């Protein structure tokens, strides 16, 4: 297609993805209190002050946090933030499909099914990463709250807590998409499994560094909770890519598919041989290869 048609197609795909996010966000806005309670309840169960601070000071563990909301517009801002976050997460199947549907027309027939596979595996992986972050958050909050000095009371703003929860869920979810992206690059022939396997040392160090930066807690347990699943998914992606490379090599040996162009023989021929062959050819109405009215067949 011309460039203008590609840009028009991209605009339509983005519009459909944004429309799905807006629709889900509008519906989630009516239930934003329930969503906030669902997100913050595990953290509050771990570090929340269920009783007075004076009674907690008498116990062995006096570290807890009071949830606060500051400002007149803070509840409205929280509602918008929670609704938008819910729209992005819950509408992920739609905008993921629109993303790959834009790429699919440029793929071969046997590669177009990868768009559906990307959505089919991408959304569960994103949810798996978000669920892992949801379960790691209480441990992270416990480690951070324990750093509070003795005698000090920790006030935890609700908007900051939601930002932390949202950031960790999105980071964990997108991190779980990395192996799927490598598989898609391998399926489209951009990246080979052997090259991916050669990166394993750098990937282990890089994933560990990414996990250390992405998690707010300084303890190694939270970092390993993010790094270990990504390590496992990376090696699964490498194994799949190696098997797919072997299958592709076997298929190429059998010849091109119906929608693929065969390789052309571009070896130059001797001009003399071409002239000798054309000289022996004549039109049906000609009885010989002599010139007719002074012109040959080509003229």
TrEMBL record:
Known function: Part of the twin-arginine translocation (Tat) system that transports large folded proteins containing a characteristic twin-arginine motif in their signal peptide across membranes. Together with TatB, TatC is part of a receptor directly interacting with Tat signal peptides.
InterPro entries on file: TatC
Region (Disordered): 251-299
Name of protein: Sec-independent protein translocase protein TatC
The family this protein is said to belong to: Belongs to the TatC family.
Membrane topology according to the record: Multi-pass membrane protein
Molecular-function GO terms, alphabetical: proton motive force dependent protein transmembrane transporter activity
Compartments, as annotated in UniProt: Cell membrane; Membrane
GO BP, sorted A to Z: intracellular protein transmembrane transport; protein transport by the Tat complex
Keyword Transmembrane recorded: yes
Entry keyword set: Cell membrane, Membrane, Protein transport, Translocation, Transmembrane, Transmembrane helix, Transport
GO CC field: TAT protein transport complex
Acidic residues bias: start-end ranges: 255-273
A Pfam family the protein falls into: TatC
Segments passing through the bilayer: 14-32, 82-102, 114-134, 164-187, 199-217, 223-243
């Amino acid at each position: 297609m011309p460039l203008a048609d590609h840009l028009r197609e991209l605009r339509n795909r983005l519009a459909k993805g944004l429309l799905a996010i807006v629709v889900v966000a509008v519906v989630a806005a009516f239930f934003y209190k329930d969503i906030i309670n669902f997100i913050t309840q595990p953290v509050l169960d771990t570090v929340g002050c269920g009783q007075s601070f004076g009674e907690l000071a008498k116990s062995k563990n006096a570290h807890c946090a009071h949830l606060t909301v500051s400002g007149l517009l803070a509840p409205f801002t929280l509602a918008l933030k929670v609704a938008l976050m819910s729209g992005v997460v819950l509408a992920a199947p739609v905008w993921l499909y629109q993303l790959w549907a834009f790429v699919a027309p440029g793929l071969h027939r046997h590669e177009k099914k990868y768009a559906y596979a990307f959505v089919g595996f991408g959304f569960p992986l994103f949810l798996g990463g978000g669920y892992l972050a949801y379960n790691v958050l209480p441990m992270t909050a416990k480690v951070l709250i324990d750093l509070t000095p003795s005698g000090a009371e920790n006030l935890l703003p609700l908007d900051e807590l939601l930002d932390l929860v949202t950031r960790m869920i999105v980071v964990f979810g997108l991190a779980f998409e990395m192996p799927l992206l490598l598989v898609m690059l391998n399926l489209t022939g951009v990246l080979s499994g052997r090259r991916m396997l050669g990166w394993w040392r750098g990937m282990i160090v890089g994933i560990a560094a990414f996990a250390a930066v992405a998690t707010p807690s300084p303890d190694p347990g939270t970092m390993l909770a993010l790094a270990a699943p990504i390590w496992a998914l990376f090696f699964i992606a490498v194994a799949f890519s190696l098997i797919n490379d072997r299958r592709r090599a076997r298929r190429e040996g059998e010849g091109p598919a119906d929608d693929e162009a065969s390789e052309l023989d571009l070896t130059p021929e001797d001009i003399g041989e071409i002239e000798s062959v054309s000289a022996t050819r004549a039109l049906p109405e000609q009885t010989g290869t002599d010139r007719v009215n002074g012109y040959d067949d080509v003229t």
